[in-house]
Amino acid sequence: MIAALAGGVGAAKFLDGLVRVVHPSTTTAIVNVADDEHFHGLHVSPDLDSVTYMLGGVNNLELGWGRAGETFRTVDELARFGAPTWFRLGDLDLATHIHRTERLRQGASLSTVTAEITAGFAIAATILPVSDDPIRTRIITGSSASPVDLAMQEWFVRDRCQPTVLDVRFDGADTARPAPGVIAALEQAESIVICPSNPVISIGPILAVPGVTDVLTRRRHKVVAVSPIIGGAPVKGPADKLMAPLGIEVSALGVARHYREFCSAIVIDRVDDEQRSDIEALGMRAVVTETLMRDSDVAADLARTALAAIA
Ligand code: GDP
User: Who contacts 110 (Cβ-Cβ below 8 Å, separation ≥6)?
Assistant: First the structure.
């Protein structure tokens, strides 16, 4: 069994490759939930849904998020009543959030509902929220004299990552319990992959759930990461705007330093070849290959390389 720590889109592309090189039923994705948010009374889980839609083969290739063939008539109609529509929820996507919200209201856990949703898309892999308990990323912006505390989606989508980041907090992480199956998957996995995801706000909240980092540290020889940073910049998204303020160098080497305590190998891009010796000086194996996942063949090759790095 392979376990993978996953954020949203970068992770989804990698997992799509992974399930082409190992049997999907032997793959367990442990997914960030700290970007979850309520919109129009609905519980939205962006990272769980990105992974689900990709593995279900119903993802939107043009947008890079959401459902293929999506329309936005409902959310646009909400503008009529003055409701905020900056978070784009597609008409098909809404069905997922309606089902999730109703089942949570009935008392089902997020992991139970996630299993129902993945079954609805006939996904053979296991997709687990890292926790059934609420964890919420807060982005601290403004100045140290008058800090402004924003929900992750307010900073990311509404404010388009413009407010300068001072700090990041994961509310609820201290007391969150790993969802059923999370620790067992990490204990039993023959390999654990840290997907190419935002190290701060996608992987960070997963690592903050009590118990997770302990298992990884104990099983460090089985843990491999794929760098989300290529040539000193993220492929997409705001990782650079979050890493730098937290003192993490925006480079493959910076990612390696950040993960070194619980990760024994990292896959980096060819353009970062010159960082290999510095990474190996940290006591990690560095493997160089093409890491820009232009299509699922590249993603599958990348997954094969990542697994071989700790075989
Ligand atoms: P988000 O929550 O949807 O932004 O998803 P993630 O945290 O999974 O992904 C964001 C990270 O994935 C960014 O830091 C990107 O640089 C990285 N990423 C996206 N596509 C690729 C790719 O093709 N290759 C690599 N190596 N990283 C990628």
Answer: 33, 45, 100, 104, 129, 131, 132, 179
